[in-house]
User: Which sequence fits this backbone?
DNA sequence: TCTTCTCCATACGGTAGCGTATGGAGAAGT
DNA sequence: ACTTCTCCATACGCTACCGTATGGAGAAGA
């Protein structure tokens, strides 16, 4: 197999599937899932369609790859980042601070959630939402809620997160001091 | 002016701008703002593009008209429906019950908020969000919160509403009894 | 009746993007 | 050195949609 070994130096002459997927994810952040087009991305990467159709079967496969990358960042990475903190209340606050803080990922989230009519998007979103709500549910259980109540609280907290995601697309939070504290207080109120 | 008077009978041979705008709004609910295309809508209405370009200047004008219709339904109509109820706590619960209940409008909302990268969509969404948050802010003031706190609570409540809107696209609420009561309790907790 | 205006059909050119077919340069194997 | 394989460029046909140009049927006005 005459494959070029990627090597560790920065300049790689050959593109990989991951490079394409990341470029597609960036396109989603800019113009939504529907705006993912092969030829514009190719010219951004400095190549032509010929490259794309060697790495991928068609456009849907590219979108799917991009969504899988997002899924990984949105669940595994985020949850792993909170493993160090064990106190449930702190964890909730850190989670909200972390997820509502990173600006670039918000464009992606909002664009992806706004395209759930696409069945490919739907399945990924369902998995991500389920994982996140399960994570939140454990927090509320640790906070002393009973299973049914913890489940409702998790849903409320997750919905609140999603809503802030959408809101911040138009209204950048205005950096009001103590807002997240108030938010955590409301969500954990007895 | 040889214009045909619309008359009051149902069968109108001539189409109006409103019919086109409503059809476009239905298209938004199905496939998002980007999916609004002149020719498919025309064939749905049983006419051709010739009709469209007589009523509208171009596609953007159609999208704008559809968004204006949504804006009206999303603010004026909803708020007017709650005028009868004066108790702030009941009003909040009625608002959530009402807005989280109508199934068809959710598709629209989610699709529109998922396309805020479009500047035309952005301006409309900003107006709608401002009006809704102002409405909620008044409720929380009536509930005894101070201005700054009421503003934060209004934002939280609105974000929660938006989040549930998104969530229900994939997870149909599961009809858990008492969920909205729990939601209202959380939002109005001291 | 004859003209005028409204509303729409038809026909046309143009662009953006998808997917395929084919060739070719260059590295990897042998 | 010769072949094989990887990665990509070029070129092509196809579809969907936009916007325009033009004509025409039919109601309204005069």
Assistant:
């Amino acid at each position: 197999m005459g494959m070029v070994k990627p090597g560790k130096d920065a300049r790689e002459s050959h593109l990989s599937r991951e490079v394409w997927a990341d470029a597609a994810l960036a396109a989603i952040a800019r113009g939504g899932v529907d705006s993912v087009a092969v030829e514009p991305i190719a010219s951004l990467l400095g190549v032509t369609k010929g490259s794309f159709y060697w790495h991928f079967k068609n456009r849907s496969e590219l979108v799917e790859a991009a969504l899988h990358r997002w899924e990984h960042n949105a669940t595994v990475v985020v949850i792993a980042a909170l493993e160090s903190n064990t106190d449930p209340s702190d964890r909730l606050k850190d989670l909200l601070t972390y997820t509502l803080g990173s600006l670039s990922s918000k464009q992606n989230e909002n664009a992806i959630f706004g395209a759930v009519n696409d069945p490919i998007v739907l399945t990924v979103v369902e998995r991500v939402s389920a994982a996140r709500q399960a994570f939140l549910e454990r927090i509320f259980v640790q906070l002393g809620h009973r299973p049914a109540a913890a489940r409702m609280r998790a849903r409320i907290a997750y919905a609140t997160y999603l809503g802030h995601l959408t809101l911040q697309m138009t209204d950048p939070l205005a950096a009001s001091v103590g807002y997240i504290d108030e938010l955590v207080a409301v969500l954990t109120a007895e």
Observations:
- Residues 1-11 of chain A have pLDDT under 50 and may be disordered.
- The CA atoms of residues 27 and 36 of chain A lie 6 Å apart.
- Chain A touches chain B at residues 30-32, 34-35, 107, 110-111, 113-117, 122, 125-126, 129, 149, 152-153, 155-156, 158-167, 169-171, 176, 179, 182-183, 186-187, 189-190 (CB under 8 Å).
- Chain A has nine helices and no strands.
